[in-house]
Write a structure and sequence with these properties.
The complex is a heterodimer of chains A (about 350) and B (about 450).
Chain A lengths: L12 H5 L5 H21 L2 H27 L7 H18 L6 H20 L7 H21 L12 E2 L3 E3 L2 E3 L2 H24 L1 H11 L1 H6 L4 H28 L1 E2 L6 H14 L4 H25 L5 H22 L4 H14 L5
Antiparallel strand pairs in A: 1-4, 2-3
Helix pairs in contact in A: 2-7, 3-7, 3-10, 3-11, 3-12, 4-5, 4-6, 4-10, 5-10, 7-8, 8-10, 11-12, 12-13
Chain B lengths: L1 H22 L5 E8 L6 H22 L6 E8 L4 H11 L15 H14 L3 E2 L17 E2 L5 H16 L9 E7 L2 H4 L2 H11 L2 E7 L7 H10 L3 E5 L3 H13 L6 E3 L6 H4 L10 E4 L8 H9 L16 H24 L6 H9 L2 E2 L1 H7 L8 E2 L10 E7 L4 E3 L4 E2 L2 H19 L11
Helix pairs in contact in B: 2-12, 3-4, 5-7, 8-9, 12-13
The chains are: A mainly alpha (about 350), B alpha/beta (about 450).
Chain lengths: ~350, ~450
């Protein structure tokens, strides 16, 4: 009843080609963004910022990056943690060594560009190998990058423990201090990045990626160059992941060691993409929300309910329930939460008179 | 539709639970959070420590009715030794209770590093007893960090002094090979700087050998040790990594008498899995060892005889349980010190920080608390957040830990310049203000 496009006529190409052709979708999305910018800062507590919203937004960006590569271009990658580390350490070194560049936007973009360069390098094997074999090759990049940041002392500025720390952060003269500042900066960057990603995947570049994903030989025959297309996907994906890694280090942790970007991070983000939905940007957000928030909620639920349980019991329950939920969602909807969302929208169009 | 109703009902119950929990909070309570790990790869070591901490707070509440009449409200949060989970626990607990968290014991060097960035903002001190950043003992830069009882540089120095003594002087170390098998994390990397410094001073060859988390796979490392035959191996492991290392040493036939663990590698869960193989293995002591002392009699009287203890009574003489007791005691005494200045009411983090910085435990006071024989007197000051730098070496005889050395003091002639340089670099990098400790009372 409420969600129906009847009566919305398009009279020019621009209207037909916009990202959200349905008016209700537009209202919803702009409403969410406006609320995130205006209402959340008015009501959010520090815990909500630092442990819920900030990790959710940053990992959503990383999931978008990986989704471009895995979901849109069909190249399975297990090197996400490594590329995030490249972004974080490149940003750290620029911040540390070039005092003039103490502007987080510049620093983050540099981190993203370096990650893109490294991504292209490790994307080269994708021209020869596919599927699981490529996953193993990117796994090698993860281990190599882990090793690099743990062993090359210059990259961590010779700190005795290999842990680096940042402070005194600025963006165009705006000092980033409290969690609200961090949140707004991250939100701004994630919104911009998502718009860029959306326009990439729905334009000719995205179509070339999808052509490669669906059948690379056919794509080559109809004129897409696999080298350029695949490496572009690696570059764009690694750029987003690198920016996410730099934000994770600078704005989430403040002080980090290579362990923050180990293989578990790669798996975590790959699971976000799979559970959220391959080849869907909204799915990236949903997957990130699911993976980030569910354990935190499960861990605190007994306390909220007033159930007195030992700390160990709560942790064990958290693992079991979380695992069961992943299995449940994959059985109910193998195409991810994004597909559930799409189904819900379909149903809503017919509501309240389903046939 | 049924599912929707169930969800609604669940939400209603959750909301009801929330309001009940909120109204039950009392005002005259000191909230102390506990970051523990009772699950995960490091649980065998995390559990006894957490039990010791919980029991000591319970004892203070049962016996004295709290700290000067202010009851302790203690809440645990399981970090699983993961840094991001630790930070989440910190954020969750830091504002609980009437005055917020008194202090945090991160019980992980990685979490300590992360919280070091947050502590000055939130004004909550961090007690990293026997771990954490070595340079954080410099209170002029690290105002909120307290690596009480010893840093890793102190630990490494004490072990090197013991080795030097055994060899008949530091000059005899020339040309020797000393390997460090370490957990590849900030924790394991901390001693490297000191050992490199000592290697330069005495002319021995230093071989750092990293082991990746969680440390169950060490075959390659010990193969290297078999090939290169170092004279001594230092072990900087935690949890399962320690017992694995000892088992691997048995497998390659490296004499256990030549292996020295840090104080986090010298507890019962580290040696028991290796059975007879661990006999002869030595480790540094964070002052105290295993065994029962004055405080244990009180624990038995007020907790265990009434069935209120969290551990099993037979386990209360273990190294890590005792360390939990010591850790909790230092925190409680810091709060007591702060109360002397600010009055007998719940303290804020800022007031507790002042208390820790003025903590002064004499031998008589330690005896009163039942900790004589476990600790030496300590005094914390603005410029020295460590308090004391003493340690001993203990050896596993197959059944129990036996103290085999006299007290050592880590050599400040070596460590102090390193601390100053590292702290200055940190302050410069982060553009932090430096306090002048000569002007502090």
């Amino acid at each position: 009843m409420l969600y129906r496009e009847a009566g919305q006529f398009k009279t020019d190409y621009a209207a037909d080609q916009q990202i959200f052709p349905i008016l209700q979708d537009r209202i919803f999305v702009f409403g969410v963004i406006a609320a995130a910018f205006a209402i959340v800062p008015a009501i959010a507590s520090e815990y909500l910022y630092t442990e819920i919203l900030i990790p959710f937004l940053i990992l959503s960006l990383a999931a978008i990056g990986l989704n471009i590569l895995v979901g849109y271009c069909g190249q399975v990658s297990l090197g996400t943690g490594g590329f995030m580390a490249v972004g974080a350490y490149a940003a750290y070194n620029l911040w540390l060594r070039v005092p003039e560049a103490n502007n987080l936007v510049v620093v983050f973009l540099f981190g993203g560009l370096m990650a893109a360069a490294v991504g292209i390098l490790f994307g080269l094997p994708s021209l020869r190998i596919k599927g699981f074999y490529l996953a193993v090759a990117t796994l090698a990049s993860q281990f190599f990058l882990d090793w690099l940041f743990a062993r090359v002392k210059w990259l961590t500025n010779y700190t005795p423990s290999g842990s680096v720390a940042v402070g005194d952060l600025h963006v165009f003269g705006w000092r980033i201090d409290g969690p609200a500042d961090r949140y707004l900066l991250i939100l701004g960057m994630v919104v911009v990045a998502t718009i860029v990603a959306k326009n990439l995947v729905r334009g000719h570049i995205g179509r070339s990626w999808m052509a490669i994903r669906d059948m690379d030989i056919a794509a080559e025959i109809i004129g897409f160059r696999p080298l350029r297309t695949k490496l572009l996907a690696f570059a764009v994906s690694s750029f987003f992941i690198g920016v996410a890694g730099a934000m994770w280090g600078f704005l989430r942790l403040g002080s980090w060691e290579p362990l923050a970007f180990d293989i578990n991070r790669s798996f975590q983000i790959l699971f976000m993409v799979i559970i959220g939905g391959l080849g869907s940007l909204v799915g990236s957000f949903m997957g990130a929300a699911f993976i980030v928030l569910t354990p935190v909620l499960l861990n605190q639920l007994p306390g909220w309910l007033g159930v007195n349980m030992s700390t160990a019991m709560i942790s064990h329950l958290e693992f079991m329930v979380f695992g069961a939920m992943i299995v449940f969602f994959l059985i109910v909807e193998p195409h991810g939460l994004a597909r559930l969302w799409a189904v819900a929208k379909e149903k809503l169009r017919l509501w309240p008179f389903p046939h | 539709m049924r599912l929707g109703k169930a969800a609604l009902l669940g939400a209603a119950i959750a909301a009801a639970g929330l309001t009940v929990a909120a109204s039950a909070q009392a005002q005259n309570e000191q909230f102390i959070p506990g970051l523990v790990y009772r699950t995960g790869a490091y649980a065998p070591n995390g559990i006894p420590f957490a039990n010791g901490v919980a029991d000591y707070y319970a004892l203070v509440n049962e016996r004295d009715g709290g700290i000067n009449g202010v009851k302790i409200l203690y809440e645990e949060c399981d970090t699983g030794y993961a840094t991001d989970r630790g930070v989440e626990c910190y954020e969750r607990l830091k504002n609980k209770g009437p005055t917020g968290a008194a202090y945090f014991n991160p019980l992980s060097t990685g979490i300590t590093f992360a919280l070091t960035e947050k502590a000055p903002v939130d004004k909550i001190p961090i007690i990293s007893m026997g771990y954490g950043r070595s340079e954080s003992r410099d209170g002029s830069v690290f105002q909120w960090n307290f690596p009480l009882l010893g840093t890793y540089w102190s630990a490494a120095d004490i072990i090197m002094q013991h080795i030097g003594l055994k060899e008949g002087g530091f000059d005899k170390l020339k040309g020797k090979k000393i390997a460090l098998v370490y957990h590849d994390s900030p924790y394991g990397k901390e001693p490297i700087a000191l050992l490199e410094e000592r290697a330069k001073m005495h002319g021995f060859e230093f071989m750092p050998l990293p082991v990746t988390h969680p440390g169950v796979e060490q075959k390659a490392t010990w193969l290297q040790i078999r090939q290169k035959r170092p004279d001594y191996v230092l072990l900087w492991g935690w949890g399962i990594m320690n017992s694995t290392a000892i088992k691997e040493a048995v497998a390659v036939g490296f004499p256990r008498e030549k292996i020295f663990g840090v104080w986090w590698s010298g507890a019962e869960p580290d040696v028991r899995p290796a059975e007879g193989g661990a006999k002869g293995y030595q480790a540094a002591m964070l002052q105290h060892g295993s065994g029962q002392f004055g405080v244990h009699a009180e624990l038995k009287k007020y907790l265990y005889d009434k069935g209120k203890g969290v551990a099993k009574w037979e386990e209360t003489d273990e190294v890590l349980y005792n360390r939990g007791l010591v850790n909790a005691m230092l925190g409680v005494e810091s709060i007591r010190t702060a109360m002397k200045k600010y009055g007998n009411k719940p303290m804020t983090g800022e007031q507790v920080r002042w208390g820790i910085e003025h903590l002064d435990l004499s031998a008589a006071r330690l005896k009163e608390l039942g900790f004589d024989g476990m600790l030496q007197p300590l005094k914390v000051t603005c410029s020295d957040h460590e308090g004391t730098r003493a340690g001993r070496i203990q050896q596993w005889d197959g059944k129990k830990w036996v103290v085999v050395s006299d007290w050592y003091q880590s050599d400040d002639k070596v460590i102090k310049p390193m601390v100053d340089a590292a702290a200055k670099k940190y302050a410069a990098e982060k553009k932090l203000p430096v306090r002048d400790c000569s002007k502090e009372s």
